[in-house]
Design a protein that fits this description.
The chain is α+β, with helices and mostly antiparallel strands and 401 residues long. The protein has helices at 23-28, 92-120, 127-153, 168-176, 182-185, 380-391, and strands spanning 17-20, 33-35, 37-53, 58-61, 67-72, 79-80, 85-90, 197-201, 206-211, 218-219, 226-229, 233-241, 253-258, 264-276, 282-290, 300-318, 323-324, 329-334, 346-359, 362-367, 374-376. It has a six-stranded antiparallel beta barrel with strand order 3-12-15-14-13-16. Strands 4-11-9-6 form a four-stranded antiparallel β-sheet, with no helix packed on it. It has a four-stranded antiparallel β-sheet with strand order 8-7-5-10, covered by helices on one side. The longest helix has 29 residues, at 92-120. The two termini are 19 Å apart.
């Protein structure tokens, strides 16, 4: 619960009553009455907010090496799976790295044969020659590892172990379209295609939200080509007053209604900022919103409620029917014998009440009245004015808390 304004326990205002001479005088004063009812009440902290993509489920894709765009396979709105190719870039650096690996493998194979041949003739040759050959083999193996790692750094699924023992032509055929999926390979002419192709692969499943590239364009690692976002879950950020921080806790339900929408979405509070904005003195909180049906849109503004308490059957009164008398919150309850006699005085009793949450046109009453009682609603300020007038000059022996 939020902090409540408390009445002064020493106040005797509840012993007061306001009376009219007749029903007509009540009508002339503009006083109307309402029945105290039960209704659902939600106590919440309200704040403005925005829906955005979940940054942990969003990816910005660029080419890892300079080159020209050879093929684009996806556009804005397309659904992509993890590992799916969005575009293919022709980069000379990729061809050089593949050539380096090819040479390193050939050199390694040659040095391995040389070491084997010298070991067989160990008794007839100097030991220094064997040591030199083994050193050359170690260098060749290091060159293979270096070339392999360079290709791995660009995202190529290289396995040099499977290339050892193959002829140079077979190694070249394996490296030429490395990383290119079969559906794209089927579109290529194997006789004219180069070894410079590097695929732009999506690291996540989601939708292409932005595309900034077309075939033939020159690209480099500083240029973002695609934005991909998984929209199955969105982030909601709310800005709430600093003074409400003591009422917040992770796990509380949040309801959000976008501007112009008739529907509410629900989530759970999962993060509360440790800092307040230096200018607005608002604190940012966050909730995860499920978006299975895909109706939520990024950068949507609206109003959210952090639910503190839900009371399905609260005692409520119309807004404006309660008044602060100076040390107590009061309402004016119509006497139960109001209609017993046409000639009797029409009495309203002053009742001290404690209020709760306000929803729409109603305010919750925590204590002081019961369902079925009748209170002054519209025009009740006339009764308050009369109450203050009667007490004018009489003083009050209570002190407002």
């Amino acid at each position: 619960m939020a902090p409540r304004k408390e009445n002064n326990s020493a106040c005797k205002i509840y012993q007061t009553r306001i009376q009219f001479a007749s029903i007509e005088s009540v009508k002339q004063a503009g006083v109307d009455v309402e029945l105290i009812e039960r209704a659902p009440i939600i106590e919440a902290i309200t704040g403005s907010g925005e829906i955005v993509y979940d940054p942990t489920k969003q990816a910005s894709l660029a080419s890892r090496v300079p080159g020209s765009v050879w093929l684009v396979t996806k556009g804005v709105g397309d659904l992509v799976t993890k590992g799916e190719v969005l575009a293919v870039v022709d980069a000379a650096q990729v061809g050089d790295l593949k050539t380096n690996l090819l040479r390193a493998l050939a050199e390694e194979n040659l040095q391995r044969q040389n070491v084997s041949r010298l070991n067989q003739a160990r008794s007839a040759i100097a030991g220094s020659r064997i040591l030199d050959a083994e050193a050359a083999l170690s260098k060749a193996q290091a060159d293979v590892l270096s070339s392999e790692q360079s290709l791995r750094n660009l995202g190529f699924p290289i396995d040099t172990e499977s290339l050892r023992g193959l002829s140079e032509r077979q190694v070249l055929d394996n490296l030429r379209l490395l990383g290119i999926p079969d559906e794209i390979r089927a579109q290529l002419n194997s006789k004219t295609i180069t070894s410079n192709l590097i695929p732009i692969v999506s690291p996540i499943e989601g939708f292409v939200t932005q595309r900034h590239v077309a075939p033939g364009e020159v690209v480099d690692p500083t240029r973002i080509l695609f934005e991909v976002a998984n929209t199955s879950q969105m982030w909601l950020t709310l800005n709430v007053p600093l003074e409400n921080m003591d009422q917040l806790a992770v796990g509380q339900p949040i309801r959000f209604q976008a501007d112009g929408s008739r529907y509410e979405v629900e989530g759970k509070l999962d993060w509360i900022s440790t800092a307040a904005d230096s200018q607005t003195r608002m604190v940012q909180v966050r909730a995860m919103l499920p978006n299975v049906d895909g109706k939520l849109r990024s950068e949507t503004f609206g109003t959210g409620q952090i639910i503190l308490r839900e009371e399905p059957d609260a005692i409520v009164i119309p807004n404006g029917s309660s008044h602060w008398e100076g040390c107590c919150q009061v309402v004016f309850v119509r006497d139960k014998h109001y209609f017993d006699s046409p000639d009797s005085f029409k009495v309203f009793h002053v009742r001290s009440v404690r209020l709760g949450a306000t929803n729409g046109e109603f305010t919750e009453v925590i204590s002081g009245v019961l369902p079925g009682e009748v209170i002054a609603a519209a025009g009740s300020d006339v009764l308050r004015a009369q109450l203050l007038k009667n007490n004018l000059g009489a003083g009050c022996d209570c002190v407002a808390e």
